[in-house]
Amino acid sequence: MGTRTPGHGPKRPNGAREAEILELLQRADGALTPREVTERLGSELTYNSVVTILTRMHTKQLLTRTPRGRAYAYAPVTDDPGFAARRMRSVLEERSDRQDVLARFADGLSTTDADLLRQLLDPDQ
């Protein structure tokens, strides 16, 4: 389980922290500054840790940022389904055998999902 550092929240993998912050930003009404993110997280992370995580997420193109006063305000580049689609596209783009990968993916779909995919690919069907 996570270890505890004095004065800080439990130690968790960066991916878990990123997911937590991404979810927080997706629920927000608009872009948030690191200070606002830190406040909404409570005492789990220090301000500097939040800035570091937000900066890394921006570098990974998960977040946009716009100047707000002396800081940046961060917002997700897309919603949760959009991130899932990006991950799927990323996996596909890493492969040279795209046809085989897509065929295996399609073979594994339920009848309901296959019908939905057909409708999405050909809405006039």
Tell me the name of the CATH class of the largest domain.
Answer: Mainly Alpha
Secondary-structure class: mainly alpha
Please bin the fraction of helical residues: 55-70%
Radius of gyration: 19 Å
| Uncertain parts | 1-7
Main β-sheet description: 2 strands, antiparallel
Number of domains: 2
The CATH architecture of the largest domain: Orthogonal Bundle
Strand content: 5-15%
How would you write the strand order of the largest sheet?
A: 1-2
According to DSSP, the number of beta strands is 2
Mean pLDDT: 88
Distance between the termini: 51 Å
- The CATH superfamily of the largest domain is identified as Winged helix-like DNA-binding domain superfamily/Winged helix DNA-binding domain
Q: Please state the overall shape, judged from the principal axes of the Cα atoms.
A: elongated
Q: CATH fold name of the largest domain, please?
A: Arc Repressor Mutant, subunit A
Report the order of strands and helices: HHHEEHHH
Number of helices: 6
